[in-house]
Write a structure and sequence with these properties.
By secondary structure, this protein is an alpha/beta fold. The chain has helices at residues 22-30, 39-48, 63-75, 96-105, 117-122, 142-151, 166-177, 200-206, 225-239, 244-255, 259-268; strands spanning 7-9, 33-36, 54-57, 80-82, 109-111, 132-137, 156-161, 181-186, 194-199, 215-219.
């Protein structure tokens, strides 16, 4: 181990158990204990690499109550590694609470590079540019999905979803964006890994018999996004009771747009 840190954020494989770095194995062997979401899942990984370090449970339901324990252990000179069940901690996984407290207390924290479903997915699908918006797990509510998709129409929108809900989510997106281009990945790095791209309706048809595995999905940016986003913003302000004249002033000021054009567009749109 080169430099000694107090706390290590260590990515673990998202599917293939061999997708772990030599440094990650070294860190997990040398720290005093490992904080993990599910000790049973992490123990399988540790057994595979003959790692005997003690595991301590750390998940979203006990984050805050574990803080004092971690701080006391670190003050006594011990070192800790944080892992999630799969992938990189802090990316849709617990860790924010303890990292914030460690920084406040002056402990040294470092993160190792490693497996992450988002980058694994994005590195094998075609995109015209590097811009994308990652929102984590997409909400269940149709209204929330609608707001997110409309609000991020100008960027490639990347999200996680469950196999039980993804087809319903795609149907909502298809209504909002008029059958946009989609890229969908499942079972990344595993035996039955599958990446599919096509229109929303084509993807839905492809998986009409059902879908299994962890899901990463991207909705391609709308080429007419600027127009769509402006309309969405106008409707949002109308729904809050703003007058057309006020809307034109607000949006032209915030986004450096033509006030008269916004006013004309506002007049042509009906409220929700």
């Amino acid at each position: 181990m080169s430099r000694k840190f107090d706390f290590y954020v260590v990515p673990t494989p998202i599917g293939n158990i061999k997708d772990i770095t030599l440094r990650a194995v070294e860190i997990l062997q040398e720290v005093d204990f490992i904080a993990c979401e599910d000790t049973r899942i992490t123990q399988k990984l540790l057994n595979h690499y003959d790692i005997t370090t003690k595991c301590i449970s750390y998940h979203k339901y006990n984050e805050r109550e574990r803080v004092e324990f971690f701080l006391n252990e670190l003050k006594s000179g011990k070192s800790i590694a944080l892992v999630s069940d799969a992938g990189t901690p802090m990316i849709c996984d617990p860790g924010n609470v303890i990292i914030e407290e460690l920084k406040k207390a002056g402990f040294t924290v470092t993160a190792l590079p490693g497996a992450c479903a988002v980058t694994t997915f994005l590195s094998q699908i075609p995109r015209k540019d590097e811009n994308f918006t990652f929102i984590g797990f997409i909400p269940k509510s149709e209204k929330q999905i609608e707001a997110i998709v409309k609000n991020h129409a100008g960027n490639n929108l990347v999200f996680y979803d469950s196999p039980e809900r993804i087809l319903k989510t795609l149907n909502v997106i298809r209504k909002i964006r008029k059958d946009p281009q989609i890229a969908l990945g499942r079972e990344l790095s595993k035996l039955f890994e599958e990446i599919v791209t096509g229109s929303c309706s084509e993807i839905t048809e492809h998986f009409k018999e059902g879908i299994k595995g962890e899901i990463v999905c991207m909705v391609y940016a709308d080429v007419n996004a600027e127009d769509s986003e402006l309309e969405f913003k106008i409707k949002e302000l109308k729904s809050k009771g703003f007058r057309d004249k006020d809307i034109s002033i607000i949006l032209s000021t915030l986004f450096n747009l033509n006030k008269n054009e916004i006013y004309k567009r506002a007049l042509s749109l009906t409220e929700y």
